[in-house]
Write a structure and sequence with these properties.
Elements (H helix, E strand, L loop, with lengths): L4 E6 L6 H14 L6 E6 L5 H8 L4 E5 L16 H6 L4 E4 L2 H6 L4 H13 L3 E6 L3 H5 L3 H13 L4 H4 L3 E4 L13 H19 L1 H6 L1 E5 L4 H8 L6 E4 L6 H8 L4
Parallel strand pairs: 1-2, 1-8, 2-3, 3-4, 4-5, 5-6, 6-7, 7-8
Helix pairs in contact: 1-2, 1-12, 5-7, 7-9, 11-12
The structure holds 2-phosphoglycolic acid.
2-phosphoglycolic acid binds next to strand 8.
């Protein structure tokens, strides 16, 4: 089946309100209503409302970079699914490698956040990906399978259709070193196969699996032309609206 590509901008802890406004205004003017791909922008939480307001009515969705699994309460610094929605978000990133490896999020925490995102009506982008040592030791697939299994424990096929998976090898994030299209395709096939085994072929067929890790306009075309690669999660090259828009159109 043909899946619509999703091009996602993860700004991480970058941009001011002014920078977010400038980006959103520029992107809005360059994206037409009937583009053959979907787009989503993940600003830092404080800039989510203004970004969502400007992009409101455009085909570009907005999301949060993280969420907490409770709805409300005494959880200093955290943000719930309901808060993301009230701020104008419809997507949320869950289990980004920087949160897993710098902030210590475990597979169990990622699973709780994933359930909270689905329960709260958001579309989660679940990030998985191995470190270089795992790849070199031939354990990349086992590692990613464990991350998927832990995050999706207790899920049903219907839930899985509501998520997006982003394969982001840790060694490719922010390093300028991209996975080759062949390596990315092999892992995307593996991920789709693992989902088919657990949740059925239909759910696996509908699942969008994005690639992330040093995607830029120069390499996006060769990745996005692959039918197994359903889009890109872009960090550094998503900070300028023109560069991000060029990634979306790179495959044509
Ligand atoms: P990068 O980041 O494009 O800067 O490598 C990707 C990501 O972390 O999502």
């Amino acid at each position: 089946m043909s899946r619509k590509k999703l091009i996602a901008a993860n700004w991480k802890m970058q941009k001011t309100i002014v920078g977010a406004k400038t980006f959103a205004e520029r992107l809005k003017t360059s994206v037409k209503k009937d583009e053959p791909y979907d787009m989503v922008v993940f600003p830092p939480f404080f800039a989510l409302p203004v970004t969502a307001e400007i992009l409101g009515g455009s085909p570009v969705a907005v999301g949060a970079q993280d969420l907490f699994w409770e709805n409300d309460g005494a959880y200093t610094g955290e943000v719930s699914a309901g808060m993301v929605i009230e701020a104008g978000g419809t997507y949320v990133i869950v289990g980004h490698s920087e949160r897993r490896h710098m902030i210590g999020e475990t597979n169990e925490v990622v699973g709780k956040k994933l359930r909270a995102a689905i329960g709260g009506g958001l579309t989660p982008v679940l990030c998985v990906g191995e470190k270089i040592a795992d790849r070199e030791a031939g354990r990349a697939e086992t590692f990613v399978e464990e991350q998927l299994e832990a995050a999706l424990a207790g899920f049903l096929g219907g839930d899985v259709e509501r998520i997006v998976v982003a394969y982001e090898p840790v060694w490719a994030i922010g390093t300028g070193r991209t996975a080759t299209p062949q390596d990315a395709v092999a892992m995307h096939r593996f991920i789709r196969g693992a989902i088919a085994n657990r949740f059925g072929v239909d759910a696996a067929d509908r699942l969008r699996v994005l690639y992330g890790g040093s995607v830029k306009p120069q390499n996006a075309g060769s990745l996005l032309r692959e039918t197994e690669i359903d889009g890109a999660l872009v960090g550094g090259a998503s900070l300028k609206a023109e560069e991000f828009a060029a990634i979306a159109t790179a495959r044509t």
